[in-house]
């Protein structure tokens, strides 16, 4: 089960890394301005809007076995087809005359990946109960980060070795091979309902409204909106900054590869420790760590820092990102209702990604106006402000849900 989840999120990370990790560096090397690189986040819009179709991805009562996995397969088949389309033209054309079509293809890749994410999240929330949620989310984030590593850092390195087309073909082969193994996993059928179920706009609205109408969800919504904003806002400009410092794509790829590996290990460790950590302390402490990491990037960008300083800050930032992401995902799972796991998780994820997306769109303008150092300092302030806001938040309570996984009373 855990291995299947790792594979599902690895698949999701492959195309995501292309947009989040590789494309900003490729675009900057091609001469695109920081403003345009920030606006590339428009291609990730489906991640913020996936709550609109998420309830239809969740299986109805009585659905036959393999419902969510079928969504995964069709979504990844679309991704592989689009990667093959990207391989039809050389890289300079995509970042030149064909740039609008590149944005469209990246948008469709994100649409397919976001839909797969709804299905994968539903499986994860359904399978992971009690003590498994900490390690499960650690594996989930780690699988995703491995995908990011391969399509981000290794993709940039592979561009120097086997070219644009060869790199895309390699990604396509990896997705296809992994998809064959995941498709064989037995997803059980849903229990039959005692009465017919109808799905429509009114049903969708009532389901969404009832989720947010519960006590304590207002402050949680505010935390969701801002918790990863500083991270997304700051991270978008790291690759352009390195390109402007004279780093080659291969050097950036090596840095990203090692830093992502550190983030992966940090996520696994956080997954284990979340069994003992109190939710609130975890969110506050790890959020402040994320803010401190961008103070490091501010320090690097304000002077002529050496290669070792950049490596140290990058590893520190990725470790903070991996741990804080696991903590956020664990709490999001705790708020999900039985029977609507995928939809509830997606509602929260979409709210979080919507805020991150808006700030990411503005990241290029921020870097252009304040400079890289000022931009990274602003990202640090955003991260720390929301982390401190979590001090006033009370963790969710419910059957099997306390402030942490021990089953003890709430420690708020």
Automatic annotation (TrEMBL):
<dbReference type="InterPro" id="IPR004752">
    <property type="entry name" value="AmpG_permease/AT-1"/>
</dbReference>
<feature type="transmembrane region" description="Helical">
    <location>
        <begin position="36"/>
        <end position="57"/>
    </location>
</feature>
<keyword id="KW-0812">Transmembrane</keyword>
<feature type="transmembrane region" description="Helical">
    <location>
        <begin position="164"/>
        <end position="182"/>
    </location>
</feature>
<feature type="transmembrane region" description="Helical">
    <location>
        <begin position="69"/>
        <end position="89"/>
    </location>
</feature>
<keyword id="KW-0472">Membrane</keyword>
<feature type="transmembrane region" description="Helical">
    <location>
        <begin position="247"/>
        <end position="270"/>
    </location>
</feature>
<dbReference type="InterPro" id="IPR024371">
    <property type="entry name" value="AcetylCoA_trans_1-like"/>
</dbReference>
<dbReference type="Pfam" id="PF13000">
    <property type="entry name" value="Acatn"/>
</dbReference>
<feature type="transmembrane region" description="Helical">
    <location>
        <begin position="101"/>
        <end position="120"/>
    </location>
</feature>
<feature type="transmembrane region" description="Helical">
    <location>
        <begin position="211"/>
        <end position="227"/>
    </location>
</feature>
<dbReference type="GO" id="GO:0016020">
    <property type="term" value="C:membrane"/>
</dbReference>
<keyword id="KW-0813">Transport</keyword>
<dbReference type="GO" id="GO:0008521">
    <property type="term" value="F:acetyl-CoA transmembrane transporter activity"/>
</dbReference>
<feature type="transmembrane region" description="Helical">
    <location>
        <begin position="141"/>
        <end position="158"/>
    </location>
</feature>
<protein>
    <submittedName>
        <fullName>Transmembrane transport protein, putative</fullName>
    </submittedName>
</protein>
<keyword id="KW-1133">Transmembrane helix</keyword>
<feature type="transmembrane region" description="Helical">
    <location>
        <begin position="347"/>
        <end position="370"/>
    </location>
</feature>
<dbReference type="InterPro" id="IPR036259">
    <property type="entry name" value="MFS_trans_sf"/>
</dbReference>
<feature type="transmembrane region" description="Helical">
    <location>
        <begin position="282"/>
        <end position="300"/>
    </location>
</feature>
<feature type="transmembrane region" description="Helical">
    <location>
        <begin position="376"/>
        <end position="393"/>
    </location>
</feature>
<dbReference type="GO" id="GO:0035348">
    <property type="term" value="P:acetyl-CoA transmembrane transport"/>
</dbReference>
